[in-house]
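Final report, Chapter 2: Outcomes

The project's central promise was a pipeline that accepts a single protein chain and returns its three-dimensional structure in a standardized token representation, suitable for archiving and comparison. That pipeline is now operational. To close this chapter, we reproduce one record exactly as it appears in the project archive, with the input sequence first and the structure output second.
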Amino acid sequence: MRMKRYSEAFKRQAVRDIESPDLSAAVVLRKYSGIDASTLRRWIRRLGSGGQADGAAAPEPSAPGRLERPGTELRLARRALAEAQEALALDQAYLAEACGQMNETVAGFKKKLAGRRPTGRWQPGRP
């Protein structure tokens, strides 16, 4: 299948539409039905208000500490929280699996190691 090529003006218009507070991302994706979301994200990184493809500096926020688009900070915080929760769940599952292979309970394992200073190295003579 041949890759579609879009003009720079077309890409800039799509980015302007997605950055517009009047249109949602879903509406823009429907409007430009031939473009997938990953392509649009790449264009936004390169050509969006945060990008510097045309050599101009990114615009300053309207007020110190405030973002241009409301909800951006909240979305970023939610994404970071979700990633942290996923990492914690993986760590807990790994600990449970490792304790299961050692025929030990997680609580017993934590209690046994509570008084030791973690060195990260195995020391002869210590279990």
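Archive annotation: Residues 79-114 form one domain.
This record, like all others produced under the grant, will remain available to the consortium after the project formally closes.
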